[in-house]
Amino acid sequence: MHFIMLTCLGFAVAALPGSVSAAATPSGYPPPPAHDRVGTTGCGKPHTPGYHYRDTHGNFSIVSGTSTRYYAVQVSQGYNARQPHPLIFDYHGNGDTSTEQHRNSQYYNYPASQKYVVIYPQGLNRSWEGPSYAVKGTDDLQFTTDLLAHVQAEYCVDPTRVYASGKSNGGGFVDTLACSDHGDSFAAFAMASAALYTDTNRTSCSKKRAILETHGHNDTVISYAGGQGKGGPLPNVGKWVKWWGERNCGLDAKAQVTGDLGGYNITSYSCGGLENVTQHYHFAQLGHCWPNAFADNYDAIHLTSQNCSEVRVLDYTPVVLGFFGKWDLGNAPK
Ligand SMILES: *[C@@H]1O[C@H](CO)[C@@H](O)[C@H](O)[C@H]1NC(C)=O
Ligand SMILES: *[C@@H]1O[C@H](CO)[C@@H](O)[C@H](O)[C@H]1NC(C)=O
Ligand SMILES: *[C@@H]1O[C@H](CO)[C@@H](O)[C@H](O)[C@H]1NC(C)=O
Ligand SMILES: *[C@@H]1O[C@H](CO)[C@@H](O)[C@H](O)[C@H]1NC(C)=O
Ligand SMILES: *[C@@H]1O[C@H](CO)[C@@H](O)[C@H](O)[C@H]1NC(C)=O
Ligand SMILES: *[C@@H]1O[C@H](CO)[C@@H](O)[C@H](O)[C@H]1NC(C)=O
Ligand SMILES: *[C@@H]1O[C@H](CO)[C@@H](O)[C@H](O)[C@H]1NC(C)=O
């Protein structure tokens, strides 16, 4: 549906620097053309377009450590087994499932996603490591690395264009991943209403990463102001954005903040050829939601306590796709 309704916007997003046909990225130099990209060992294996969580043998799973871990996959209509595709790992919120996150971010509805393979990992007991409520001893960072190796052997993936996104506990885990060596395989990180339990001061993370986050001022699950959350202490989101600005651009980094763009504003940090390497969308009224302009995603329909369907000022998924489209491992901050 968004595919049709957003044709113009989708075209604009697809035309952002970073798509292989573009002249130059804002981050300094053009990405290599498609024919120069080298795919992974999964190239040549056919896959049927659509959303899949099981094959003829059962649900898709791998063994990671001592656990069997599950995942689902969206194969786009344009999937070509001989062409390296960019890849997104999209992590659900606490208490949720792969399929619920699939319906939350709805990548499949947007033209700019059609070149991607999207993987929806399933958390053990529906949560991710970091908060105190996660299953004790779970190593979701190792699961991510193990699943990435598995996916690269099953699908034709461009290993320089692997990205992570997530909502709430899944967004917080994306930040945990960004702060870890396991995140070195990922070119950019995007979060909505992130539960930032593992990143509570500037020095708790020493990585430089391309970071995008959105947060609503009405979020009553992961408060913008921080404080005690269900899974432990949380940082003030505005301070956390500044830390990422400083991690990427140094202690004298200066934020650029837009005026009110109609219910939200954008804070951006840029430095040394890294244009908008830290970006934050701050919504005046939004609750604990993946922002959606059509009131038809999982949060809009099911998270009624957060009034997710009432604030339709921006559709976040094309923003995420535009952000991912600007980065690969060649131009990402190091
Ligand atoms: C950086 O982000 C700001 C705010 O959204 C935008 O106005 C600007 O065009 C962006 N710059 C680039 C090069 O994308
Ligand atoms: C496979 O997935 C279905 C739907 O999500 C679920 O009901 C079922 O329990 C899963 N099976 C296993 C073995 O996890
Ligand atoms: C799984 O989550 C439920 C709450 O959703 C909790 O009561 C239970 O203790 C958790 N199990 C484990 C093994 O952490
Ligand atoms: C910063 O965070 C790290 C890891 O989360 C923690 O070990 C350290 O004590 C914190 N430092 C301060 C000053 O709070
Ligand atoms: C950005 O928007 C938030 C939420 O409405 C608001 O609290 C903040 O003051 C705004 N920042 C600027 C610089 O306008
Ligand atoms: C946001 O919170 C304010 C103050 O609690 C409330 O008046 C307003 O209705 C909320 N907005 C939405 C969209 O729920
Ligand atoms: C949702 O809207 C109701 C009614 O306007 C308000 O009382 C409540 O605070 C809002 N919830 C959030 C999370 O903004």
TrEMBL record:
<dbReference type="GO" id="GO:0045493">
    <property type="term" value="P:xylan catabolic process"/>
</dbReference>
<keyword id="KW-0624">Polysaccharide degradation</keyword>
<keyword id="KW-0119">Carbohydrate metabolism</keyword>
<keyword id="KW-0858">Xylan degradation</keyword>
<dbReference type="GO" id="GO:0030600">
    <property type="term" value="F:feruloyl esterase activity"/>
</dbReference>
<protein>
    <recommendedName>
        <fullName>feruloyl esterase</fullName>
        <ecNumber>3.1.1.73</ecNumber>
    </recommendedName>
</protein>
<dbReference type="InterPro" id="IPR029058">
    <property type="entry name" value="AB_hydrolase_fold"/>
</dbReference>
<keyword id="KW-0378">Hydrolase</keyword>
<keyword id="KW-0732">Signal</keyword>
<keyword id="KW-0964">Secreted</keyword>
<dbReference type="GO" id="GO:0005576">
    <property type="term" value="C:extracellular region"/>
</dbReference>
<feature type="region of interest" description="Disordered">
    <location>
        <begin position="24"/>
        <end position="50"/>
    </location>
</feature>
<dbReference type="InterPro" id="IPR043595">
    <property type="entry name" value="FaeB/C/D"/>
</dbReference>
<feature type="signal peptide">
    <location>
        <begin position="1"/>
        <end position="22"/>
    </location>
</feature>
